[in-house]
Amino acid sequence: MQSRTSPDRRAVLRGGTLALGGATAGTLGAVVPAAAAPGHRTRTWAQRPLLDKQDRHLVSRFSYGVTPELAREVRRKGGARAWFAWQLQPSRVRDRTHARTAAWWPMLDHGPLTLWKNHSDGIRGGWLVMEDYQRWVMARRMHSRRQVQETMAQFWENHLNVPTNGEQWFLYRRDYGETIRRHALGRFDELLLAAITHPAMLIYLDNASSTATSPNENLGRELLELHTVGRGGFDEADVKDSARILTGWYVDMWRSWEASYRPDLHATGRVRVKGFSDPNHDPDGRAVTRRYLRYLAHHPDTARRIAHKLAVKFVSDDPPARLVSRLAKVYLAHDTEIRPVLEALVDSREFRRSVGDKVRDPSEDVVATYRALRVRMGRPTAPDSAANAMLWQAQTIGAMPFSWPRPDGTPLDNAAWSSTSRLLASFRTHYSMAGGWWPTKDVRYRPPRSWVPKSGMRFDELVDHLSRELLHQPSTREMLKACCEATNLRPGEKITHDHPLVRWTMPRLLTTFLDSPAFFVR
Question: Taking the model in full, what pTM does it have?
Answer without folding.
Answer: 0.91
